[in-house]
Amino acid sequence: MYESTRGNLSEQTASQAITLGMVPGGGLFVPSTFPALNWQDLQGLTYRDIAQHVMTPYLPEFSQDVLSDIVNVYADGTFDGPNPAPLISVGNFGVLELWHGPTAAFKDMALQVLPNLMKVSLSSVELNSDVLILVATSGDTGKAALEGFKNREGMHIVVFYPEGGVSAVQERQMTTTEGTNTHVVAVKGNFDECQAAVKRIFALDSLKAQLQEKNLIFSSANSINWGRLLPQVVYYYWAYLQAVEQGKVTPGSKMNVVVPTGNFGNLLAAYYAKRMGLPIGQIISASNKNNVLVDFFSTGVYQSQRAFFQTISPSMDILVSSNFERFLYEMSGRDAQKIRSWYDSSNQGMFTVDPDTLKQCQDTVYAGWSDEDETLETISRSYKAYQYVFDPHTAVGMKVYEDYLATTKDQTFTVIASTASPFKFSSNVLTALQGKQESLRDEWVALDDLTKLTGWKIPLGLQGLNNKPAKTVEVCEAEGIVEVLQRMFI
Ligand SMILES: *Cc1c(COP(=O)(O)O)cnc(C)c1O
Protein backbone atom coordinates (compact mmCIF):
# COMPACT_ATOMS: atom_id res chain seq x y z
CA MET A 1 0.00 0.00 0.00
CA TYR A 2 0.97 3.63 -0.40
CA GLU A 3 0.94 6.54 1.99
CA SER A 4 1.51 10.27 1.80
CA THR A 5 4.79 11.86 2.88
CA ARG A 6 2.67 14.40 4.77
CA GLY A 7 0.50 11.92 6.62
CA ASN A 8 -2.71 13.16 5.01
CA LEU A 9 -3.52 9.92 3.15
CA SER A 10 -2.68 6.27 3.72
CA GLU A 11 -3.66 2.75 2.66
CA GLN A 12 -3.89 3.69 -1.00
CA THR A 13 -3.40 1.13 -3.74
CA ALA A 14 -0.75 1.47 -6.43
CA SER A 15 -3.54 2.22 -8.92
CA GLN A 16 -4.78 5.08 -6.80
CA ALA A 17 -1.27 6.48 -6.41
CA ILE A 18 -0.58 6.27 -10.14
CA THR A 19 -3.95 7.69 -11.16
CA LEU A 20 -3.71 10.65 -8.82
CA GLY A 21 -0.03 11.42 -9.49
CA MET A 22 0.35 13.44 -6.32
CA VAL A 23 -1.55 13.51 -3.06
CA PRO A 24 -4.49 15.91 -3.19
CA GLY A 25 -3.78 18.63 -0.66
CA GLY A 26 0.00 18.16 -0.86
CA GLY A 27 2.45 15.34 -0.37
CA LEU A 28 3.80 12.51 -2.48
CA PHE A 29 2.91 8.84 -2.53
CA VAL A 30 5.49 6.47 -1.11
CA PRO A 31 5.33 2.70 -0.67
CA SER A 32 4.61 1.80 2.94
CA THR A 33 7.37 -0.85 2.88
CA PHE A 34 10.24 -1.84 0.61
CA PRO A 35 9.93 -5.48 -0.39
CA ALA A 36 13.20 -7.42 -0.39
CA LEU A 37 14.42 -8.68 -3.74
CA ASN A 38 17.57 -10.78 -4.09
CA TRP A 39 19.70 -9.85 -7.07
CA GLN A 40 20.91 -13.47 -7.18
CA ASP A 41 17.41 -14.59 -8.12
CA LEU A 42 17.56 -12.41 -11.23
CA GLN A 43 20.79 -13.71 -12.69
CA GLY A 44 20.56 -14.67 -16.35
CA LEU A 45 17.23 -12.90 -16.89
CA THR A 46 16.58 -10.29 -19.56
CA TYR A 47 15.92 -6.63 -18.74
CA ARG A 48 12.27 -7.19 -19.47
CA ASP A 49 11.97 -10.06 -17.02
CA ILE A 50 13.93 -8.24 -14.35
CA ALA A 51 11.57 -5.30 -14.75
CA GLN A 52 8.67 -7.62 -14.11
CA HIS A 53 10.31 -9.03 -10.97
CA VAL A 54 11.20 -5.63 -9.55
CA MET A 55 7.78 -4.11 -10.22
CA THR A 56 5.55 -7.03 -9.23
CA PRO A 57 5.63 -6.61 -5.43
CA TYR A 58 4.73 -2.93 -5.80
CA LEU A 59 1.73 -3.56 -8.05
CA PRO A 60 -0.27 -6.29 -6.30
CA GLU A 61 -3.48 -5.56 -8.17
CA PHE A 62 -1.81 -5.95 -11.58
CA SER A 63 -2.02 -9.47 -12.99
CA GLN A 64 1.21 -11.08 -14.18
CA ASP A 65 -0.12 -11.20 -17.74
CA VAL A 66 -0.88 -7.52 -17.75
CA LEU A 67 2.46 -6.58 -16.25
CA SER A 68 4.26 -8.86 -18.64
CA ASP A 69 2.67 -6.99 -21.54
CA ILE A 70 3.59 -3.65 -20.05
CA VAL A 71 7.29 -4.41 -19.63
CA ASN A 72 7.46 -5.84 -23.11
CA VAL A 73 8.50 -2.39 -24.38
CA TYR A 74 11.99 -3.27 -23.19
CA ALA A 75 12.11 -6.21 -25.59
CA ASP A 76 9.97 -5.27 -28.57
CA GLY A 77 12.35 -2.96 -30.44
CA THR A 78 11.19 0.27 -28.81
CA PHE A 79 14.72 0.64 -27.46
CA ASP A 80 17.53 0.41 -29.98
CA GLY A 81 19.46 -2.82 -29.64
CA PRO A 82 18.79 -5.86 -27.52
CA ASN A 83 19.99 -4.23 -24.28
CA PRO A 84 17.91 -1.19 -23.26
CA ALA A 85 20.55 -0.01 -20.77
CA PRO A 86 24.06 -1.27 -21.55
CA LEU A 87 26.80 -0.96 -18.95
CA ILE A 88 29.84 0.32 -20.82
CA SER A 89 33.30 -0.14 -19.39
CA VAL A 90 35.13 3.19 -19.42
CA GLY A 91 38.49 3.36 -17.67
CA ASN A 92 38.04 1.41 -14.45
CA PHE A 93 34.46 2.52 -13.91
CA GLY A 94 31.17 1.83 -15.67
CA VAL A 95 28.76 4.03 -17.59
CA LEU A 96 25.15 2.90 -17.61
CA GLU A 97 23.75 4.27 -20.86
CA LEU A 98 20.11 5.01 -20.19
CA TRP A 99 19.40 6.84 -23.43
CA HIS A 100 18.70 4.12 -25.96
CA GLY A 101 14.97 4.78 -26.01
CA PRO A 102 12.96 6.56 -28.73
CA THR A 103 13.84 10.10 -27.57
CA ALA A 104 17.48 9.51 -26.55
CA ALA A 105 16.73 10.51 -22.94
CA PHE A 106 16.86 8.35 -19.83
CA LYS A 107 13.29 9.37 -19.15
CA ASP A 108 12.18 6.92 -21.84
CA MET A 109 13.06 4.12 -19.42
CA ALA A 110 9.99 5.06 -17.36
CA LEU A 111 7.83 7.02 -19.75
CA GLN A 112 7.48 4.13 -22.16
CA VAL A 113 5.86 2.21 -19.31
CA LEU A 114 3.85 4.86 -17.48
CA PRO A 115 0.95 5.23 -19.97
CA ASN A 116 0.13 1.54 -19.70
CA LEU A 117 0.52 1.57 -15.92
CA MET A 118 -1.91 4.44 -15.91
CA LYS A 119 -4.38 2.78 -18.24
CA VAL A 120 -4.55 -0.32 -16.07
CA SER A 121 -4.70 1.81 -12.92
CA LEU A 122 -7.64 3.78 -14.27
CA SER A 123 -9.67 0.70 -14.98
CA SER A 124 -8.68 -0.78 -11.63
CA VAL A 125 -10.04 2.23 -9.74
CA GLU A 126 -13.07 2.05 -12.03
CA LEU A 127 -12.72 5.53 -13.39
CA ASN A 128 -14.24 5.88 -16.80
CA SER A 129 -12.81 9.33 -17.34
CA ASP A 130 -10.25 10.39 -19.88
CA VAL A 131 -6.94 11.58 -18.40
CA LEU A 132 -5.34 14.90 -19.04
CA ILE A 133 -1.62 14.65 -18.41
CA LEU A 134 0.11 17.89 -17.55
CA VAL A 135 3.88 17.93 -17.77
CA ALA A 136 6.37 20.63 -16.85
CA THR A 137 9.67 19.95 -18.53
CA SER A 138 13.18 21.31 -18.38
CA GLY A 139 13.77 19.65 -21.74
CA ASP A 140 13.86 15.89 -21.74
CA THR A 141 10.71 14.83 -19.93
CA GLY A 142 8.56 16.68 -22.43
CA LYS A 143 9.53 14.74 -25.50
CA ALA A 144 9.74 11.43 -23.68
CA ALA A 145 6.25 11.96 -22.25
CA LEU A 146 4.80 13.08 -25.60
CA GLU A 147 6.26 10.00 -27.23
CA GLY A 148 4.91 7.72 -24.50
CA PHE A 149 1.39 9.17 -24.50
CA LYS A 150 0.85 10.05 -28.14
CA ASN A 151 -2.27 8.57 -29.73
CA ARG A 152 -3.24 6.72 -26.54
CA GLU A 153 -6.94 6.26 -26.35
CA GLY A 154 -8.55 8.16 -23.48
CA MET A 155 -5.43 10.20 -22.79
CA HIS A 156 -4.42 13.77 -23.63
CA ILE A 157 -1.11 15.37 -22.88
CA VAL A 158 -0.01 18.99 -22.60
CA VAL A 159 3.67 19.75 -22.14
CA PHE A 160 4.84 23.09 -20.74
CA TYR A 161 8.47 24.14 -21.14
CA PRO A 162 10.29 27.35 -20.20
CA GLU A 163 10.53 29.54 -23.30
CA GLY A 164 14.18 29.69 -24.37
CA GLY A 165 15.13 27.30 -21.56
CA VAL A 166 15.59 24.14 -23.62
CA SER A 167 18.03 23.27 -26.39
CA ALA A 168 17.10 23.68 -30.06
CA VAL A 169 17.11 19.93 -30.48
CA GLN A 170 14.90 19.40 -27.43
CA GLU A 171 12.46 22.04 -28.63
CA ARG A 172 12.34 20.56 -32.10
CA GLN A 173 11.84 17.08 -30.68
CA MET A 174 8.76 18.32 -28.85
CA THR A 175 7.25 20.37 -31.64
CA THR A 176 7.60 17.59 -34.21
CA THR A 177 5.72 15.04 -32.13
CA GLU A 178 2.91 13.47 -34.07
CA GLY A 179 -0.31 12.43 -32.42
CA THR A 180 -3.76 13.93 -32.23
CA ASN A 181 -3.74 14.12 -28.42
CA THR A 182 -0.46 16.01 -27.90
CA HIS A 183 0.02 19.72 -27.12
CA VAL A 184 3.11 21.81 -26.47
CA VAL A 185 3.13 25.20 -24.73
CA ALA A 186 6.06 27.53 -24.02
CA VAL A 187 5.85 29.37 -20.71
CA LYS A 188 7.63 32.64 -20.00
CA GLY A 189 10.04 32.19 -17.09
CA ASN A 190 12.49 29.54 -15.93
CA PHE A 191 11.78 25.88 -15.25
CA ASP A 192 11.04 26.30 -11.56
CA GLU A 193 8.43 28.95 -12.36
CA CYS A 194 7.00 26.73 -15.07
CA GLN A 195 6.88 23.72 -12.73
CA ALA A 196 5.34 25.75 -9.92
CA ALA A 197 2.64 27.07 -12.27
CA VAL A 198 1.77 23.55 -13.40
CA LYS A 199 1.70 22.31 -9.79
CA ARG A 200 -0.77 25.08 -8.93
CA ILE A 201 -3.10 23.84 -11.67
CA PHE A 202 -3.38 20.49 -9.91
CA ALA A 203 -4.82 22.29 -6.89
CA LEU A 204 -7.37 24.40 -8.81
CA ASP A 205 -10.73 23.00 -7.84
CA SER A 206 -12.68 25.24 -10.20
CA LEU A 207 -10.76 24.03 -13.24
CA LYS A 208 -11.01 20.46 -12.00
CA ALA A 209 -14.78 20.79 -11.85
CA GLN A 210 -14.96 22.26 -15.34
CA LEU A 211 -12.89 19.40 -16.69
CA GLN A 212 -14.89 16.82 -14.82
CA GLU A 213 -17.94 17.97 -16.75
CA LYS A 214 -16.01 17.03 -19.87
CA ASN A 215 -15.20 13.67 -18.28
CA LEU A 216 -11.55 14.59 -17.84
CA ILE A 217 -9.31 14.14 -14.81
CA PHE A 218 -5.77 15.42 -14.25
CA SER A 219 -2.73 13.31 -13.76
CA SER A 220 0.99 13.86 -13.85
CA ALA A 221 3.78 12.29 -15.86
CA ASN A 222 6.48 14.06 -13.88
CA SER A 223 8.60 11.99 -11.53
CA ILE A 224 6.31 12.90 -8.66
CA ASN A 225 4.13 10.12 -10.10
CA TRP A 226 4.95 6.75 -8.55
CA GLY A 227 4.54 5.20 -11.99
CA ARG A 228 7.56 7.21 -13.11
CA LEU A 229 9.78 6.18 -10.22
CA LEU A 230 9.10 2.48 -10.04
CA PRO A 231 10.42 1.57 -13.53
CA GLN A 232 13.63 3.40 -12.63
CA VAL A 233 14.44 1.05 -9.76
CA VAL A 234 14.89 -1.68 -12.38
CA TYR A 235 18.00 -0.33 -14.07
CA TYR A 236 20.05 -0.34 -10.89
CA TYR A 237 19.43 -4.07 -10.56
CA TRP A 238 20.33 -4.40 -14.22
CA ALA A 239 23.53 -2.39 -13.73
CA TYR A 240 24.58 -4.58 -10.83
CA LEU A 241 23.86 -7.81 -12.69
CA GLN A 242 25.87 -6.59 -15.69
CA ALA A 243 28.74 -5.52 -13.42
CA VAL A 244 28.82 -9.00 -11.89
CA GLU A 245 28.60 -10.66 -15.27
CA GLN A 246 31.41 -8.49 -16.64
CA GLY A 247 33.57 -9.43 -13.66
CA LYS A 248 33.72 -5.83 -12.40
CA VAL A 249 32.09 -6.65 -9.09
CA THR A 250 32.60 -9.85 -7.14
CA PRO A 251 29.16 -11.31 -6.46
CA GLY A 252 27.68 -9.78 -3.33
CA SER A 253 30.19 -6.96 -2.94
CA LYS A 254 29.15 -3.36 -3.26
CA MET A 255 28.84 -1.08 -6.27
CA ASN A 256 28.71 2.71 -6.04
CA VAL A 257 26.45 4.81 -8.24
CA VAL A 258 26.78 8.39 -9.44
CA VAL A 259 23.56 10.13 -10.47
CA PRO A 260 23.32 13.47 -12.32
CA THR A 261 20.52 15.02 -10.35
CA GLY A 262 17.64 17.39 -10.98
CA ASN A 263 14.30 16.43 -9.49
CA PHE A 264 15.99 13.63 -7.51
CA GLY A 265 13.90 10.84 -9.06
CA ASN A 266 16.76 8.94 -10.61
CA LEU A 267 18.76 9.09 -7.40
CA LEU A 268 15.79 8.11 -5.27
CA ALA A 269 15.31 5.02 -7.42
CA ALA A 270 18.90 4.01 -6.60
CA TYR A 271 18.18 4.49 -2.91
CA TYR A 272 14.98 2.42 -3.18
CA ALA A 273 16.94 -0.37 -4.91
CA LYS A 274 19.39 -0.30 -2.02
CA ARG A 275 16.52 -0.55 0.46
CA MET A 276 15.29 -3.61 -1.45
CA GLY A 277 18.62 -5.27 -0.78
CA LEU A 278 20.73 -4.46 -3.84
CA PRO A 279 24.38 -4.16 -2.72
CA ILE A 280 24.78 -0.47 -3.49
CA GLY A 281 27.58 1.24 -1.57
CA GLN A 282 27.90 5.00 -1.84
CA ILE A 283 25.20 6.91 -3.69
CA ILE A 284 26.71 10.05 -5.20
CA SER A 285 24.53 12.99 -6.17
CA ALA A 286 25.91 15.29 -8.87
CA SER A 287 24.52 18.79 -9.39
CA ASN A 288 25.39 21.56 -11.81
CA LYS A 289 25.79 25.21 -10.83
CA ASN A 290 22.26 25.10 -9.40
CA ASN A 291 23.81 23.38 -6.40
CA VAL A 292 21.01 23.79 -3.87
CA LEU A 293 21.32 20.13 -2.84
CA VAL A 294 25.05 20.34 -2.22
CA ASP A 295 24.46 23.21 0.19
CA PHE A 296 21.72 21.22 1.86
CA PHE A 297 23.93 18.20 2.44
CA SER A 298 26.58 20.33 4.07
CA THR A 299 24.32 22.57 6.18
CA GLY A 300 20.89 20.97 6.57
CA VAL A 301 19.35 24.14 5.17
CA TYR A 302 17.30 23.82 1.99
CA GLN A 303 17.20 27.26 0.44
CA SER A 304 15.52 27.33 -2.95
CA GLN A 305 15.13 31.12 -2.97
CA ARG A 306 18.38 31.87 -4.74
CA ALA A 307 19.77 32.84 -8.11
CA PHE A 308 18.75 30.47 -10.88
CA PHE A 309 21.38 29.63 -13.50
CA GLN A 310 20.71 28.50 -17.02
CA THR A 311 23.43 25.94 -17.71
CA ILE A 312 24.63 23.61 -20.46
CA SER A 313 22.95 20.77 -18.53
CA PRO A 314 19.42 22.25 -18.65
CA SER A 315 17.61 19.14 -17.43
CA MET A 316 19.31 19.67 -14.08
CA ASP A 317 18.51 23.37 -13.80
CA ILE A 318 16.21 22.82 -10.86
CA LEU A 319 16.10 24.50 -7.45
CA VAL A 320 12.96 22.86 -6.12
CA SER A 321 13.82 19.19 -6.32
CA SER A 322 10.42 17.50 -6.10
CA ASN A 323 11.45 14.02 -5.06
CA PHE A 324 13.66 15.26 -2.28
CA GLU A 325 10.55 15.24 -0.13
CA ARG A 326 10.35 11.47 -0.53
CA PHE A 327 13.99 11.16 0.44
CA LEU A 328 13.57 13.32 3.54
CA TYR A 329 10.57 11.22 4.50
CA GLU A 330 12.88 8.19 4.79
CA MET A 331 15.77 10.14 6.34
CA SER A 332 13.55 11.57 9.07
CA GLY A 333 12.34 8.09 10.02
CA ARG A 334 9.08 8.60 8.13
CA ASP A 335 8.09 11.56 10.23
CA ALA A 336 5.16 13.05 8.31
CA GLN A 337 4.80 15.83 10.83
CA LYS A 338 8.35 17.03 10.17
CA ILE A 339 7.80 16.84 6.40
CA ARG A 340 4.65 18.91 6.77
CA SER A 341 6.46 21.56 8.75
CA TRP A 342 9.38 21.73 6.31
CA TYR A 343 7.20 21.88 3.22
CA ASP A 344 4.67 24.30 4.68
CA SER A 345 4.04 26.98 2.09
CA SER A 346 4.66 29.71 4.65
CA ASN A 347 8.36 28.73 4.58
CA GLN A 348 8.53 29.88 0.95
CA GLY A 349 10.88 27.13 -0.13
CA MET A 350 13.32 27.38 2.75
CA PHE A 351 13.63 25.03 5.71
CA THR A 352 16.21 23.57 8.06
CA VAL A 353 16.15 19.92 9.07
CA ASP A 354 17.04 18.62 12.52
CA PRO A 355 20.59 17.31 13.18
CA ASP A 356 19.53 13.63 13.22
CA THR A 357 17.88 13.87 9.83
CA LEU A 358 20.88 15.73 8.42
CA LYS A 359 23.27 13.08 9.72
CA GLN A 360 21.11 10.39 8.14
CA CYS A 361 21.19 12.28 4.81
CA GLN A 362 24.95 12.67 4.94
CA ASP A 363 25.43 8.99 5.76
CA THR A 364 23.27 8.01 2.80
CA VAL A 365 24.36 10.32 -0.01
CA TYR A 366 27.56 12.12 -1.01
CA ALA A 367 26.76 15.34 -2.87
CA GLY A 368 28.98 17.34 -5.17
CA TRP A 369 28.69 19.74 -8.08
CA SER A 370 30.47 20.91 -11.19
CA ASP A 371 30.54 24.41 -12.64
CA GLU A 372 30.18 25.14 -16.35
CA ASP A 373 33.89 25.29 -17.19
CA GLU A 374 34.64 22.13 -15.25
CA THR A 375 31.86 20.33 -17.10
CA LEU A 376 33.18 21.33 -20.53
CA GLU A 377 36.70 20.48 -19.45
CA THR A 378 35.54 17.06 -18.21
CA ILE A 379 33.94 16.27 -21.57
CA SER A 380 37.17 17.05 -23.38
CA ARG A 381 39.49 15.38 -20.87
CA SER A 382 37.37 12.21 -20.74
CA TYR A 383 37.28 12.00 -24.51
CA LYS A 384 41.06 12.21 -24.66
CA ALA A 385 41.52 9.65 -21.90
CA TYR A 386 38.82 7.13 -22.83
CA GLN A 387 37.50 8.05 -26.32
CA TYR A 388 34.14 8.22 -24.62
CA VAL A 389 31.83 11.18 -25.22
CA PHE A 390 29.83 12.41 -22.25
CA ASP A 391 26.84 14.68 -22.67
CA PRO A 392 26.97 17.70 -20.33
CA HIS A 393 24.66 16.11 -17.72
CA THR A 394 26.66 12.92 -17.47
CA ALA A 395 29.87 14.98 -17.50
CA VAL A 396 28.65 16.71 -14.33
CA GLY A 397 28.40 13.21 -12.85
CA MET A 398 31.89 12.33 -14.07
CA LYS A 399 33.41 15.45 -12.52
CA VAL A 400 31.74 14.85 -9.18
CA TYR A 401 32.91 11.23 -9.30
CA GLU A 402 36.50 12.41 -9.81
CA ASP A 403 36.17 14.77 -6.86
CA TYR A 404 34.71 11.97 -4.76
CA LEU A 405 37.61 9.70 -5.70
CA ALA A 406 40.17 12.35 -4.87
CA THR A 407 38.57 12.99 -1.48
CA THR A 408 37.79 9.45 -0.38
CA LYS A 409 40.17 7.17 -2.34
CA ASP A 410 37.21 4.77 -2.41
CA GLN A 411 38.14 2.00 -4.85
CA THR A 412 34.66 0.44 -4.99
CA PHE A 413 33.52 -0.21 -8.57
CA THR A 414 31.39 2.73 -9.56
CA VAL A 415 28.69 3.17 -12.17
CA ILE A 416 27.81 6.58 -13.56
CA ALA A 417 24.21 6.85 -14.71
CA SER A 418 24.41 8.41 -18.17
CA THR A 419 21.23 10.37 -18.65
CA ALA A 420 21.42 11.71 -22.19
CA SER A 421 23.04 11.08 -25.52
CA PRO A 422 25.76 13.65 -26.29
CA PHE A 423 23.97 14.30 -29.58
CA LYS A 424 21.16 16.03 -27.76
CA PHE A 425 23.65 18.69 -26.79
CA SER A 426 25.96 18.49 -29.80
CA SER A 427 26.83 22.13 -29.93
CA ASN A 428 28.15 22.35 -26.38
CA VAL A 429 29.81 18.98 -26.63
CA LEU A 430 31.65 20.14 -29.76
CA THR A 431 32.67 23.32 -28.01
CA ALA A 432 34.19 21.16 -25.31
CA LEU A 433 35.93 18.82 -27.72
CA GLN A 434 37.26 21.44 -30.13
CA GLY A 435 37.97 24.31 -27.78
CA LYS A 436 36.13 27.59 -27.59
CA GLN A 437 33.81 28.49 -30.45
CA GLU A 438 33.00 32.07 -31.30
CA SER A 439 29.25 32.33 -31.60
CA LEU A 440 26.17 30.20 -31.60
CA ARG A 441 26.53 27.14 -33.73
CA ASP A 442 23.76 25.69 -35.83
CA GLU A 443 22.56 22.70 -33.80
CA TRP A 444 21.81 20.68 -36.90
CA VAL A 445 25.24 21.15 -38.38
CA ALA A 446 26.64 20.33 -34.96
CA LEU A 447 24.90 16.93 -34.98
CA ASP A 448 26.69 16.00 -38.20
CA ASP A 449 29.97 17.46 -37.02
CA LEU A 450 29.85 15.43 -33.81
CA THR A 451 29.31 12.26 -35.84
CA LYS A 452 32.24 13.09 -38.07
CA LEU A 453 34.51 13.87 -35.16
CA THR A 454 33.69 10.87 -32.99
CA GLY A 455 32.43 8.22 -35.37
CA TRP A 456 29.42 7.73 -33.07
CA LYS A 457 26.02 7.30 -34.72
CA ILE A 458 23.27 9.89 -34.31
CA PRO A 459 20.46 8.24 -32.29
CA LEU A 460 17.46 7.32 -34.45
CA GLY A 461 15.14 9.68 -32.60
CA LEU A 462 17.32 12.66 -33.51
CA GLN A 463 17.82 11.86 -37.18
CA GLY A 464 16.05 14.04 -39.71
CA LEU A 465 14.47 16.20 -37.03
CA ASN A 466 15.18 19.49 -38.75
CA ASN A 467 13.21 18.44 -41.83
CA LYS A 468 10.11 17.25 -40.00
CA PRO A 469 7.08 19.53 -39.97
CA ALA A 470 6.79 21.29 -36.63
CA LYS A 471 3.70 22.38 -34.73
CA THR A 472 3.40 26.03 -33.83
CA VAL A 473 3.89 26.52 -30.15
CA GLU A 474 1.62 28.63 -28.05
CA VAL A 475 3.48 31.01 -25.74
CA CYS A 476 1.94 32.13 -22.46
CA GLU A 477 2.71 33.69 -19.11
CA ALA A 478 2.83 31.36 -16.10
CA GLU A 479 -0.51 32.84 -14.96
CA GLY A 480 -1.99 32.15 -18.39
CA ILE A 481 -1.80 28.37 -18.22
CA VAL A 482 -5.36 27.99 -16.92
CA GLU A 483 -6.73 29.97 -19.82
CA VAL A 484 -4.76 27.90 -22.32
CA LEU A 485 -6.17 24.69 -20.85
CA GLN A 486 -9.69 26.07 -20.83
CA ARG A 487 -9.36 26.97 -24.48
CA MET A 488 -8.06 23.51 -25.37
CA PHE A 489 -10.44 21.36 -23.40
CA ILE A 490 -13.51 23.26 -22.23
C1 LIG B 1 15.76 14.54 -16.05
C2 LIG B 1 17.19 14.52 -16.28
C3 LIG B 1 18.10 14.52 -15.23
C4 LIG B 1 17.67 14.62 -13.78
O1 LIG B 1 16.99 13.48 -13.34
P1 LIG B 1 16.09 13.55 -12.01
O2 LIG B 1 15.48 12.22 -11.90
O3 LIG B 1 15.09 14.63 -12.25
O4 LIG B 1 17.01 13.88 -10.90
C5 LIG B 1 19.45 14.46 -15.52
N1 LIG B 1 19.88 14.42 -16.79
C6 LIG B 1 19.04 14.41 -17.84
C7 LIG B 1 19.60 14.39 -19.21
C8 LIG B 1 17.67 14.46 -17.62
O5 LIG B 1 16.84 14.45 -18.67
UniProtKB/TrEMBL annotation:
Modified residues (N6-(pyridoxal phosphate)lysine): 107
Keywords from the named record: Lyase, Pyridoxal phosphate
EC top class named in words: lyase
Domain Tryptophan synthase beta chain-like PALP span(s) in chain numbering: 99-403
A Gene Ontology term for the protein's cellular component: cytoplasm
Family annotation (Pfam families): PALP (PF00291), Thr_synth_N (PF14821)
Location of the Threonine synthase N-terminal domain: 2-72
Coiled coil segments of this chain: none
Homology family: Belongs to the threonine synthase family.
Protein name in UniProt: Threonine synthase
Organism: Desulfosporosinus fructosivorans
